[in-house]
């Protein structure tokens, strides 16, 4: 695959996950919606890595680490956001965190974070088209 094909692959599967995230939110599966929201961002950041660095993105789910390795210039607010969204991956996967995370993921909390995921998604996609 060419570099452009790999970038388009990451974007395409991120877009599919984005649709899944929205469907999970509508179904009131809030914790899973946030988990998938993490994947939406992760895949776009991996597309940035491919565009800016190399065709083999790092094997990590740490969003800030991927973004920094991709040479993206981030504000402190964006860094904090990526750290938070990374926890959505961890807290949904591991039993000792799940119950606490489930309680936290009410409609208001999830809606606010999905809005931020959407905003960050638009920002990253703009970086991919430059």
Report on this structure.
The protein is mainly alpha-helical and 130 residues long. It has a single domain (3-129), classed as Four Helix Bundle (Hemerythrin (Met), subunit A) (Up-down Bundle). 81% of the residues lie in helices and 0% in strands. The chain is built from 6 helices and no strands. Helix 1 runs antiparallel to helix 2 (30-52), helix 2 (30-52) packs across helix 4 (76-93) and helix 2 runs parallel beside helix 6. The relative contact order is 0.16.
Q: How would you describe this structure in keywords?
A:
Four Helix Bundle (Hemerythrin (Met), subunit A); 130 residues; 6 helices; single chain; mainly alpha
Tally of alpha and pi helices: 6
Shape: globular
Fold-level CATH name = Four Helix Bundle (Hemerythrin (Met), subunit A)
- Distance between the amino and carboxyl termini: 21 Å
The portion of residues assigned to helices is over 70%
Strand content: under 5%
Q: Assign the structural class, choosing from mainly alpha, mainly beta, alpha/beta, alpha+beta, or little secondary structure.
A: mainly alpha
Mean pLDDT: 95
Query: What is the CATH homologous superfamily assignment?
Result: Nucleotidyltransferases  domain 2
Question: How many discrete structural domains?
Answer: 1
Summarize the main sheet.
Answer: none
The number of strands is 0
